[in-house]
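=== Structural record ===
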Amino acid sequence: MDVVPFCGRGSTLFAARSLGLVSRGVDASPVAVAVAQAKLCEVVADEALELARSLLDSVQPVHIPSSTFFRYAFHKTVLKDLCAIREGLLVHKRLLDASVLLRATVLGCLHGPVSKRPENQSYLSNQMPRTFASKPDYSVRFWRERQFSPPKTNIIAVLGRKLARFSTPIGMPRCRLSNVRIGDARLASSFPCSGRDFSVVVTSPPYYGMKTYVEDQWLRNWFLGGTDYVDYGNSNQLTHSGQDSFAESLGAVWRNMARSRSESLDMYVRFGAIPSSRADAKKLMLASLESSGERWRVVSIRTAETASSGKRQAQQMTAESDAIMEYDFHLVRQ
């Protein structure tokens, strides 16, 4: 069995599932966990769409944001429907395939580029990046300057187009949706004793200098029950105040991994640092291992080239970003 701290949106968990392996994922981000759980569920597109219709028919939303951002971001009828589905899903406490799939599908459609052809519209918002939510003041200024209006689109049609793309591959084993959970990987409580039998760790921690992931996902966090404004600062993130504090913070995660009861433990880590941080990612990773207080043997360190594709998320609203140098580490607990 393997464990994935910082599981992100579950690609590693899905790969393990496709290979018939048992895996568990932990992430501090509700957005990441919601998407990762969807990658472990059975795809029941018809049931998810029927659930959306049922919520639209039965839920009269109580809280509809009225800020300038929301008025420019979503057409008023789309926003009302979005809030109805949001409030309906928030009372669904059980992890059911249909609700998990619908929740993740809405997150995927919540914001992105506006199609020139309404019948092909894939997102619910005014013009935005699809991978992160730009900040309210900047967004409103951007839309006003270009006289952009939010599309009046049919939310069921948008969800239906997205859901039509999904299917559960034949032979794909079922997984427990509870195998993905919200947790701070630095805390031992995020890895209960009953789940410390893993022999492989596969992970890619937040890169040094990437401080704004929570803020960049603020709109999706709102849909999952968070605030309707950007909440700056998050104590569940690794400490980015300096390289020493970051190494110590990440070291706490490696310490938790070393507590596995398995006789052997291999850890595979992809790690990097954004260019503006001026940090040596390789040295920083090694420092975090030393900070863990555990004995790790470095089997290999390989350059993973640069993450040039990381520039894609900024294209829709003309921002710029530099490529990141990444390294792949193979480590063994001694």
